[in-house]
Amino acid sequence: MFKKEFYKFKDVYLLLVVLITSFLAYLAFSLKNMVQNFGALDTNLSFLFKKKFTFFHLDDMNLVFAFVIAVFVFFHERINGRLRLSLHFPHSSARNIGFIIMCGLLFVFFVYFVEIILLNIILGAVYAKEIMYVLNYSLAFNYVFGFLLYIFCCGFIIEPVKKRAIVNFIVMLGSIYLYYEINPDIYAFDSFYANDFGFYYMGIVALYALSAAFIAFDNYKRGYIK
Amino acid sequence: MNAIECRNLSHSFGKNRIYEKLNFNVPRGKVVGLLGKNGVGKSTTINILMGNLEPTSGECLIFGEDSNNLSANTKSRIGLLYEGYVTYDYLKIKDLYKLYEKEYAARFKKELFFDLFKKLTVSENQKISTLSCGQRSQVILGLIFASDPDLLILDDYSLGLDTGYRRLFIDYLKKFIENKDKSVLMTTHIVNDLDELLDEIIIMRKGKEPLNIGYKKFRDTFRGFSLPRNTNLENIDGIESSFKLGDEMQIFGFFKKKPINAKELKLNLEDAFLGYTGRY
Amino acid sequence: MKILKIVYFGVFILFLALFLPRIIDTALSEAKKNPKVYFSENLNQFLIQGYDREAKKSYFLTESGDELSTEGFMQNLPFKFYSYLLAKGIFPDQYTDWANADKIRANSQILAIKPSFYNQKSIPLFTLLESKPKFLKLQFNNYGIRGKKDRIEFVNLETLKVDDALSQTYTDALKQSGFIFPLKCHYSNPTTRKVFDEGAFLQDKQNTIFHLKMINGKPLVKNTKIKNATIKKIIMNENQRKEFYGALIDDSGVKLISYDNYRLIPLPSRMYKPESMVYSLFITPLSRTVIININDKVEAYKLDNNYQILRNFSFPIENNNQWITNIKKYLLPFTLKKKDGYRHEYTLSDFSFLVLLANALFALLYLVVTFKRKVPILHFIIIGIFGIYGFIALCLY
To answer: Is pLDDT above 90 for C299?
Structure first.
């Protein structure tokens, strides 16, 4: 079953992991250069007082990663109505649906998990723990939104009613806008901790994304095949 | 006890009514052919049976459970073949095999799969998407047979298959059901293949009650006659369809007696089917 | 599934309440150009600098409504445009004693509190500059300072190691001055681009403010006796006039912290909301003025040397977007918008009962849209309450 899920996105997964690794390496080398040129003190101070830090689009890449994996996961189920097969495996429908959603999500989670550990090793060697808290909070927010984007994809790829699929897509775009307003890259923050309340709003967005996903599966099962 | 029971099944797509109050059963251990011309609702019925479509009204029970809400145990007893041999084409044969082996572990009979698979000259490492339609059908049917279902629902199994593969399929199906403990509901447009295989047939016609009849009874009582072209048909009872061909007129139906001046036609299943549904 | 559908629908209405008002504002509103108000010492009047949108040019007015040319405007603000006036030799004659740029600069001070600055929450790690640097030039030392439960900790930002000795020295100095740990807040001006350094103000557990400086590496701590639980921010503003350390903002407004034993000097702050308004204190050799940019007007205060209000002046800001506000009042039952502050906190606001007519029209429109279909009465109740949001959501549902 894992293989069945993994093979849907195997190639693109590996490609994106390579890309994320490259972004991570670029961030690490940039930081190393900054420390070599200006010293760790200046690096810390310029973070504290000028918000001089960027993830070099690694955070954007994380979102793209989750989104693309989700597109592959759910499109493969939609092609030729393969979802009909997946729903017929001898388990409850909830389990069959849960497996389709969670399997890809687990692969995304794995990359995020490894990434945050590496980032903590790389950045934690230079930045004070108070700064690391800000960075980790921002990254955690980024990952959670990545998961949400993944679930959003279900809401517009599986959803067979075109009108609703479009609405779900628009709400996803609105959520992306909201996400970047609340949790932009560090240098673009209006203030540190601007994302303090962000998880509450992401919670509301999660409610929508999950509802949309389950409604989509339900609609599909009720017969809006094609 | 029936494997499938459909009661007062009605379905519409928007304003387009497909059928109304359809009733039929598939008894256990029987092979039932669901026949009909395009657009009469065969696939709709199959989709309802497979739990992928909620009927507008009525209910469909499989082994006594609502087809839209089957338990895991009942699902494991049903083998589904989707029109066009839908499967996970992005997997290799061996991965697809492992998937079915794991999912149907309790019932899986691998010898049934390999018996069919060894007839193919392909490697287990080949991706399903690279197989020909016939090869693909054998892999899928092999897996369905290997999962040892009590009920087979086969939607247009013959689509895209050449005569050889169709015959191979029928041969295996016959072997699969020889113990008379399996039920089969199948649709196809190549009805002649089903001769000698079916126990019952359901023939659906647009806007009319479907015909649910034993196969033998249908073959014995449904007849066709050739008459002179200008014969008045008003006095002949039981005509289901007629058409003119050159100087003659052919009529089909359940006739109690042979019409005057009529010459009986020798009908195969396809002729009888077309005779019942009408040619055009 | 029913609950999921209610959640789905409810969140979509919130989504509309957030984005629809924004779309209306973005599509229809014009950028606001706030006029600026200054005090003219020679005219003893406030002057206004604004922008005429129709004529597409700046205008200059006196408080009494007389128009001024650009030259006239500059000449009447000699302590603002002194560089230009002195260079051109047209500095007003009556101020010949002040016709010296350095002298003017040494007796001038600007303290501006902008929302973008006020709405900052700093990371709980600060630095102290050496207030008496060996080579006179201010520079950062290697340490970041963090507050712990019962002490402050000096962490070397090059190595991320804690300097226990330094931490102990400063902790002891604070404790000896009566500081009660933990440290609640720190306020400083962490830049080397200033003439001198006045250290940092620290707020202790009991909301007392302590003044901490580093002199020759040693701590100098003073209890300011300022005890205030409503302090929002202290903005340090080191200036060679050495009249005040900076401004303290609390629930009652803006106060200066004077060099006179940390005495607090209240400044005019009526209607001032630091989260969204710009507050400026302009000190020239001959005047002190406070200018507050309130939403629909500019409030200006002329102060005496003791910061008592001598007179005030109010100049209205033309609002070209009033019609949009009115449209929204009649169209949108409420909006979801960001509260002013450091974080993104969205609240439901602008509830309007004027939308009832529009809601009725939307209900009627819904009846037309769903013509010949059986519609539950609940849909009309939803439109009655949520108006346009409910209408759009139901149409797309």
So the answer is: yes
Residues A156 and A164: their CA atoms lie apart, in Å, by 7
Helix axes A129-157, A2-50, angle to 10 degrees: 140
Report how far residue B265's alpha carbon sits from residue A124's, in angstroms, rounded to the nearest whole number.
90
Residue B181 has pLDDT above 90, yes or no: no
What proportion of chain B, given as a percentage, has pLDDT over 90?
A: 25
Residue of A nearest to C122 (CA): A192
In chain C, domain spans: 2-29+323-396, 32-108+284-318, 118-268
Is any Cβ of chain A less than 8 angstroms from the Cβ of B83? no
| Residues in chain A within 8 Å Cβ distance of C160 | 40, 125-126, 128
Assigned token pair, C322: 């009033």
Identity of the residue in A45, A198, A210 whose CB atom sits nearest the CB atom of C140: A45
The pLDDT value given to residue A9: 94
Supply the ipTM of this predicted assembly.
0.90
Q: How many inter-chain contacts (A to B, CB under 8 Å) are there?
A: 72
The CATH H-level (homologous superfamily) assignment of domain B2-206 is P-loop containing nucleotide triphosphate hydrolases (3.40.50.300)
The tens digit of pLDDT for each residue in B221-234 reads 999 998 888 878 78
DSSP string, B161-191: --HHHHHHHHHHHHHHTTTS--EEEE--S-G
Q: What are the beta bridge partners of residue B104?
A: none
- Domain over B217-277 is classified CATH 3.30.70: yes
Q: What percent helix, strand, coil does chain A show, rounded to 5?
A: 85, 0, 15
Average pLDDT, chain C: 92
Separation of alpha carbons C24 and C20, rounded Å? 6
Question: Chain C contacts of A130, Cβ < 8 Å?
Answer: 123-125, 144, 146
Per-residue pLDDT at A226 exceeds 50: no
CB B217: neighbour CB atoms within 10 A? 12
Q: What is the pLDDT of residues C187-240, one digit of tens each?
A: 999 999 998 999 999 999 999 999 999 999 999 999 999 999 999 999 999 999
Contacts of A110 (CB under 8 A, 6+ apart): none
Determine whether the interchain pair B86/A91 forms a contact, defined as Cβ–Cβ distance below 8 Å: no
Under 8 Å between Cβ of B239 and B233: yes
